[in-house]
Amino acid sequence: MEAKNENHSMWKFRLTAATMTLIPAAVGINYVAKAFAEGLKLPVWLGSLGTFLASMLAGPVAGAISGFINNIIYGLTLSPISTVYCLTSIGIGLAVGILYEKGYFDKASKVLPAALVIALVSAVISTPLNVIFWGGQTGIAWGDALFAYMTAHHVSIWIASFADEFVLDLLDKVIVAYLAYLIYKQMPKRLVFFFKGNR
């Protein structure tokens, strides 16, 4: 019975003052982190850090909304490509929230398998988008080099595109997951309870 209550609580979402504060903050974190990564031409995106934190603090629905809004705003202001991936951001937000509730962000040793699952979710959603809109590539040079190598050796475009996306997602989500974990652990308990108490 207790597990059912926890599960019900996980999917609860109310537009309270807490969530109305958290979602714009998460969108801002996503936006700045992604712009920073793109500006320095890093081999990762970093654009889901705010989504991770929102999902951990206020549940998967809040995280999904944060990710979705960020992709729309980022696409309208800095990179039109980003808009297409709002579906991926929704999937990331939901996955992080579920894994958090299952205890995968309780200690550092559990964060790695969580990041692996989140990377897999992200790659599964993004791969068809990459194939439809960009011929299977991601726009990150070393991932696209793997794609070019595989297609040159007659590997299916779908497999090559998934491999391109997954190797990048794995690195990105491991970095972001540990960053989110470290930030979350440093948050004052009062702040954490403020968001959780409003769910």
From TrEMBL:
Position of the signal peptide: none
Gene3D superfamilies: 1.10.1760.20
Membrane-spanning intervals of the chain: 44-69, 81-100, 112-133, 140-160, 166-184
Keyword line: Membrane, Transmembrane, Transmembrane helix
The protein, known as: ECF transporter S component
Taxonomic source organism: Lactobacillus equicursoris DSM 19284 = JCM 14600 = CIP 110162
